[in-house]
Amino acid sequence: MAALQTIRCYGIFLLQGTIKACALIDPLPQPLALSNELRLFLAAGSAAERNTLGIADFEGSADDRRLFGNPQGITFDEKVKEAEAILFNKKPIIERLASRLHEIVKKAYGDFSGFRPQQAGMGGVIRDYWVLLCKEELKEVCSH
Fold first, then answer.
1. Least packed by Cβ within 10 Å: which of 4, 67, 121, 125?
2. What count of other Cβ atoms lies within 10 Å of the Cβ of residue 128?
3. What is the per-residue pLDDT across 89-133, written as a single tens digit (0 to 9) for each?
4. CA distance 35 to 51
5. How many CB atoms lie within 10 A of CB 119?
């Protein structure tokens, strides 16, 4: 969603230890200062789960919900529905991206130690990641 909403995205990364994929973006402002694009970005994970699995992982979205905050006039679930429609309309791009990531992970056979390591700060904590798709590769996948 970051690439679709013109949010600066540094690529798709895999958090070491938990093996959780994520898109890394610039630090978010406080919840009341979030733009519409950033709110859509936070809702996009749940939207993608609902589009593909039929249901979103409520516990898995806890951090996104916390970062989203409680703005007046809009709920997280309303933004999820809006993000669902955007992702559905961009289905070929999403499928191409998912297919590319699936191939990358499949070729690794569970051993990601050969991937380029990258440290990044999220919420003031520096964490170790492996790069799945760098910024340029992500742009390439999303532009075709």
1. 125
2. 13
3. 988 888 888 888 889 988 888 888 888 888 887 666 778 888 899
4. 23
5. 9
